[in-house]
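Reply to dn_fold:

You asked what the input looked like. This is it:
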Amino acid sequence: MEKEDIKQKILDEISKTERLIEEYKDMTKPVAPDVAIGRISRMDAINNKSITEASLRQAEGKLRNLNRVLSMFGTEDFGRCIKCRTLIPIGRILFRPESLYCVNCAQ
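and this is what came back:
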C-alpha cells in the first residue's frame, strides 16, 4: 500500500473523530433544571451524560494519538512502536491508525 494511502486513512480518521467529538460535546451539555422531565428521566439523562463524557474523553485521546502519528509521518519513527521500536504491522496501522504500540506492547 502506498504511503499516501496510509496518510489519507489517517486524515480521514482525524476528520471522523473530530466530528464525533463535536457530537459528544453537544450531547454532554447540562440538562436545565427547568426542563419539565420526570425525576427518573432526569436521573437517566444524568447517567447518559456521564457515559457520553467518558466516550468524549476516549475520542479526544484517540484524536491526540492520531495527530501524533500524523506528525511522525514521513520520519523513521512512523510505524514503529514507541516502546520497543519494532515495526507495527501494516494491518494494525490500517485497522487502528492511532496505534502507537505494537500488539505485544499494547497489552
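The chain has four helices and no strands.
Hope that clears it up.
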